[in-house]
Every structure is written in structure tokens, then in C-alpha cells.
Amino acid sequence: MPSTLRRDIRLLKAWALTSSTLLVIVAASAFRRPQDQKVRFAEIDVERINIVEPDGKLRMVLANRPRSIGPIYKGKPFGYAGGSRPGIIFFNDEGTENGGLTFDGRTLPDGKYRASSGFSFDQFNQDQVLYFQYRDDNGLRRTGLTIADRANVDIYDLIAERDSIMKLPDGAARNEALQRWAAPRNGVPLAAERIYVGRDPARNAVINLSDPNGKPRLRLKVDSLGVASLEFLDAGGAVTTRIPDGR
């Protein structure tokens, strides 16, 4: 082989090796940017975004339906699997879910529709206690702001207890166990709506103030015909006084 040909081959090999090395370095640098360096996109399509703390704990998840996350307690899944809550889910400092923004809406095979959306905030280690909600079952709508009470029972233990009961054979024993599970704890209901401000399915604009058991005791209402009233109710739900009387 002529010496010039051997030299050219060596130069070609050296060039190929150098080019490959530079390509690897450039590619690696594109994916290993400094943590404090901003990257700007004009537009991005994505199915899920996880916002995490430096230690990896979730703080917020934005996802479509299939990639949406299920309930998380201190970084541990519980309750039910993901895939049913498109929207945004928030997490506290311990990696436990503490609220979110979810939404859906679709036409059913029979031509009717269902839609809902909600923006909620959870009690610590419990479920939602402050929430804005819209529910629509083919025109039967309820829209409003709710403030609720929750028993001071850890939601992880509460759901674990329920799941254990659900493993029992279907029958009287399981039903009785579920009734005991759903009963108040130390006299406090597991959940009680205290304040509701909104529009109910009967097209009334209402403000309901309820007792600690969730029973409405004072109701300010303007009905679907524009008639205004103020009602006082007893613990059983009966109206004891209505202003104006007879309306």
C-alpha cells in the first residue's frame, strides 16, 4: 500500500474519531445544562409535567387523563390507581396530596352529556375542605363554593380501614362494618358541609349555613322565579321559621 494512501487513511480515521467525540460531547451538553440555566420554548406538547423538590418529592403534577396520578400519601400511592383525574394535583412539604384542579366533560352514547370541574384544597392529611365545584348532568347543574369540616382522622389509615372491610364477603357483616366505619369519630362526622354558596339543581341561588353535623340550619334563597326568602331549620331539616311568612 503506498505511503500516501496509508497516511490518508490514518487522517480519515482520526477525523472520524474526532467528529464522533465532538458529537457525543455536544449531545451530552444539551441534556446536562446547569440547574440554574433557563430553557425557553415557544410551544411544547406534553402529556405530563412533574414539579419536584430537590430531593425528588412531588409538589405539583400536571397531566392528561391516562397519565394522571392517583392519591399519594407521603410519597406512597394509596386508595386507587391513576388515570382518572386530568388536571393539576398539589402536594404538601411531605409529598402528600393536598388539593388540585381537575376537569372533564363528554357526550355519552345516548346523546346526553356530563361535565364537571373543581378547584379544591385539602385539610392536612385529609380530604378537601374548601372547594369550588361545577357539576352538570345534562343540564341538571350545581355550581358553588363549599367549606366543610373533616374529622381529625388520618386519611391513609381511614382508606386502609375501608379497603380492609371491602375484602370481606358481600353481605350483612360487611355492610355493618362499613356503617361503623362511616360513623362519626368521637362525635365528629367524617365530613360535614358547613357553608355552601351557589346555585343548586333546582335553579335556586342559595347560601346554606349548616351545623357541625352538616345539617342546614339557616338558608338564604332566591328561587327560580325570583322570590327571596330566609329560612331557619331544625336538626331534622324542617323549616321552623320563614321570612316572609307563608312563602
Low-confidence segments, ≥5 residues, pLDDT <50? Answer: none
List how many beta strands DSSP finds. 14
* Share of residues in helices: 10-25%
The largest β sheet comes out as: 12 strands, antiparallel
Distance between the termini: 111 Å
Silhouette: elongated
Q: Strand fraction band?
A: 35-45%
Total of DSSP H or I helical runs spanning 4+ residues: 3
What's the Cα radius of gyration? 29 Å
Chain-averaged pLDDT: 90
**Element pattern in H and E:** HEEEEEEEEEHHEEEEE
- Strand order of the biggest β-sheet: 1-2-5-6-7-8-9-10-11-12-13-14
Class by SSE composition:
alpha+beta
Describe this structure in words.
The chain is built from 3 helices and 14 strands. It has a 12-stranded antiparallel beta sheet with strand order 1-2-5-6-7-8-9-10-11-12-13-14, with no helix packed on it. Strands 3-4 form a two-stranded antiparallel sheet. A hairpin with a 5-residue loop joins strand 12 (216-222) and strand 13 (228-233). The protein is elongated. The mean pLDDT is 90. With 247 residues, it is an alpha+beta fold. Among the domains are: 1-37; 109-151 and 187-247, no CATH class.
